[in-house]
Design goal:
By secondary structure, this protein is mainly beta. It has one domain. It has two helices and eight strands; from the N terminus they run H-E-E-E-E-E-H-E-E-E. It has helices at residues 3-20, 96-99; strands at 35-43, 51-57, 64-69, 72-76, 86-90, 105-113, 116-123, 144-151. The strands form two sheets. The chain has a four-stranded antiparallel β-sheet, with no helix packed on it. A four-stranded antiparallel β-sheet has the order 3-4-7-6, with no helix packed on it. A hairpin with a 2-residue loop joins strand 3 and strand 4 (72-76).
Amino acid sequence: MNKKLVVVLLALCVVISAAYSRPAPKSASRPVAESKRWVALLTQSGTNVPTAVVLENTLSGNVVFYRGGAGVYGLDLDGEFTENKTWVMIGQPIDTDVNNGTPDLIVRWRVLSPNEIQVLTSRQEDFDNPLSLYNGRDGLLNNTPIEIRVYE
């Protein structure tokens, strides 16, 4: 085969290869949204306010608790909980001492204001009667994990 033809064919292969090659894939990581976090384990008994074992706190201060009634608790921190930018995850491990081994605990939350998050605790049986109003219960938080994130 002619050397010039081989060189031309090789050059053509390089050009075609470059034209159809794809750029190397970029990293699969995406930018992470910045957030402040408060992570803790909550416990509440009797008519006492909840207590927290704080695992992480990057908020601007310390959360203060109150008890508003049976199964109604507030977490306060002035101006920290931005509307539509605050996310709460709270759950309850099954605990035979608290729940008699049944996973019927219901924990709900809501942001009431930029200063306050409310946590409500009850049991499934409190909702079994469709005519009953909310019937909160104390003593259901036992090392209950909670995470609050406030996004910028």
